[in-house]
Amino acid sequence: MSLYEVDIERTGRRRSVWRWFLLHPAADYLWAVLGVLLWLGIAMLARQPLMVEGADTDARRTLLQTLATLAGATAGLTLTSVSMLINVLGKKAAPGQRELPLERLSAAHRRQIGEVFLFAIPGLGLLVVAALVTIVLEGDAPTGLWIPEAVVFVLAFASVLALLRVAWALRRVLAIATA
């Protein structure tokens, strides 16, 4: 089997699970919700504060500001990568020269690569907004609000999974370009 007409030498069950992960980006939110529910369940069983609501006000604010900053910067980088990707995937060989490796990609494969990048951007944008809204809602209260914090962590976990997919797509494009 080959993805984007670049042979993958790995064999076995791991490849099919990885391929499923790559082709189903919407499942990121399901995995993220399951992760946060597990976190909440463990916190309830241990009779601990849910999420980070029990942390110091300044520590919570710093964490949320950091998440918002990282998400915004990563969304900008991903958007820049999309414009570079359009130039790379659209480049054609000069007349009389042999075809460039990226020219061999079908339209469907080009679309899949683009969708990987475009799927990550809205989640990162939502993470920025959710983190900033949570900062405003919590204000200077001594305890945080676990529901908006849970939304922020769901978006953060889903964004990490989407960025793993983006890194994979960049690696594939590099492998194809240098083939």
From TrEMBL:
Keywords of this entry: Membrane, Transmembrane, Transmembrane helix
Transmembrane segments: 21-46, 66-89, 116-137, 143-164
Record protein name field: Uncharacterized protein
Top-level lineage group: Bacteria
